[in-house]
Amino acid sequence: MIPVLCTHVKALSLTRVEDALLADEWISGCVVWDYWMRHNAREIIVEPWRWETPPDPSKARTVSGKRKMDFVMPVPPIPMCPPETRVTVQYEVGLAHNEHGKEILHVKSSTVSHDVPYGDHFSVDEKIEMLREGDGVLVTKSWSADWVKRSFLKSMIERNVKNSQADTCEKLIAVLQAYADEGSPVDSFGSPMSRSPESDGNLLDLDGDEFMSVDGDDEDASFEDADGGEVEASTSLLEFLGDAFSTFTMSRWRPSRAQHGERIVFEVWELQRRTTMFHDDWRAPFLPHDGQKQARWVDDRYHKHPWVLMTSGDAAVKDRPPISGPAAMCEQEEWHVATEGHKDKEGWQYAPDFYKKPNKWGAKAAICLCRRRLWKCTFVRMPKVVQPRTIVLQIWELQRRTTIFQTDWRAPFLPHDLMRHRFRWVDLDYNAHPWFNGQAGLSLRVYVVDLASCSLLAAEGWVVAHPAGPCDSGRWQYSSDLNRSSSRWGSQSTGLGCRRRLWSCIFTEGCRILL
Predict the structure, then answer these.
(1) Staple 512 to which of 189, 213, 241, 360, CB 3.0 to 4.6 Å?
(2) What would the DSSP string read from start to end of 412-437?
């Protein structure tokens, strides 16, 4: 599943949320009910619980049950979609403790929209976890699309579902924040667990110093020239980067079962290709259609890993994962090759091409042209950031004009632009930046994967940097097309239809809860 949310809701009572969720009736005050009411759901029908481990006040709070919910809700204005659709949601709720005695609430759901095109071909699976942390609750959310039938619209549907995740996360946070502001959803829900004598005794008591922040402020960033002079920031960039902030679209990581929320295991795939099956010159993927695989270090979607912050060319020559890890966390062990599964003695798997399905890969090179191996590293939380790291992030701003006789510069809009230059704001390889949220753009405050304290990287301010090669007074470079090579860009716009500008920002590592 793809993680999309990791936030801390201060002053929220997890016990009250559990009691409302485990009640016989879901009404106002239940997080599921209020969540769908924010989607303007109507004609809601909730079936009775099917308990696997029924709640028992006389025993430990360990519960597992399933429940189905049907309703009608409006559909956003999307081509080929009706104004509203019937929806069925299968819920699986679990309440348990980890090895450290922390109570964890799991809410898994599988949603089917019956009236949208190909609605019976797939379901949207989501998982929400809530964990007591400090003086509130740590909330994480992830999603995936589960396909049961094929569809030629699969990519478009998954893109629409992905874009809708920002709105669903906002609604979930709004519901939980409303509960925190009220003190609790309601006083009593009649849940059999609400009378447990131990229900209020498990609140984790952490020293406030664990969330001590690094010196610095979060004031709005100002835009200055890299040499100290002021640069006029375009309105579009202010809209793009201004006050917006979003949860970082997390890289592929897996929470450790031993210490939920205190350490994570990073996974990164190393990809290599050889010239022919008769050669043994294995190296980073080099064919034009390899795309982001040319970075060599990728996630399980074969996109350049979000924490590889150098260009694909620089990353391709590295023999070990060029990843320093998320903020406020340090390596517990060295990067190592995973040896589990069907692999050779060095951990490599071989295939004719870079397939995503595991059953396409084997342990023998034979006639295969491609190989991959999985690297892992465990990162643990640092209670305090003594020497904060800094990350210099650079992005290109790309623009195109209608003709060389006009000055209507705007985001790339030609059909062939969509093949590679999908966004106006891209990384140094002209790919969508992994910290891009799909709507407002790169955040001024980028949340980082850290289940323990929701650590963040605070931006010191975006500036227009001086690019390699000639540029005009506004730091723009001009070319006939959106070329990668710096030698094809100049400082004169005459007769040229594309331009680009380099923006830079320094992010400082922090360890702070920010809502």
Answers:
(1) 213
(2) --STTHHHH--SSEE-TTSSB-TTB-
CA distances from 101 to 60, 105, 255, 260 (A): 11, 13, 16, 11
pTM: 0.45
Q: What are phi and psi of 459, to 5 degrees?
A: -85, 135
Is the CB of residue 442 less than 8 Å from the CB of residue 241? yes
Structure tokens belonging to residue 432:
């969508």
Residue 391 buriedness (CB in 10 A; 0-12 / 13-18 / 19+): middle
Are 457 and 327 in contact by the 8 Å Cβ rule? The answer is: yes
Rounded Cα distance, 114 and 299, in Å:
33
Whole-number pLDDT of residue 219: 36
346, with CB counted inside 10 A (0-12, 13-18, 19+), is exposed
Could you tell me if 113 and 85 are in contact, meaning their C-beta atoms sit under 8 angstroms apart? yes
**How buried is 442 (Cβ within 10 angstroms: 0-12 exposed, 13-18 middle, 19+ buried)?**
buried
Pairing of strands 103-113, 263-273: unpaired
- Cite the DSSP H helix spans in 209-334: 235-241, 312-316
Please state the separation of Cα 172 from the chain's center in Å: 16
CB 321 within 8 A of CB 377: yes
Q: What is the pLDDT of residue 220?
A: 37
The whole-number pLDDT of residue 490 equals 93
Q: Which residues are bridge partners to 53 per DSSP?
A: 64
- With 0-12 / 13-18 / 19 or more C-beta atoms within 10 angstroms meaning exposed / middle / buried, residue 253 is middle
Query: What gap in Å lies between CA 39 and CA 69, rounded to an integer?
Result: 14
* CA–centroid distance for 70 within its chain: 29
How many angstroms separate the CA atoms of 139 and 200, rounded? 19
- Select from 311, 245, 224 the least CA-distant residue to 457: 245
Q: How far out from the chain centre does Cα 340 lie?
A: 27
- Average pLDDT along the chain, 515 residues, taken 10 residues at a time: 81 86 88 91 91 71 86 84 90 79 86 87 90 82 88 84 86 88 48 34 31 33 37 35 32 38 79 90 90 88 83 88 76 84 88 90 90 89 70 86 88 71 76 59 33 48 87 93 88 91 82 39
Number of residues that this document lists for the chain: 515
With CA atoms as reference, report the closest residue to 234 among 486, 489, 462.
462
- Name which of 391, 408, 402 is nearest 458 in CA terms: 391
* CB distance 456 to 327 below 8 Å: yes
Q: Return all residues near 124 (Cβ < 8 A) that are at least 6 apart.
A: 110, 111, 143, 144, 145, 146, 161
The token duo for 97 is 């403790």
> How, if at all, do strands 84-97 and 329-331 pair?
unpaired
Let me know: does 266 contact 331? Beta carbons within 8 Å.
no
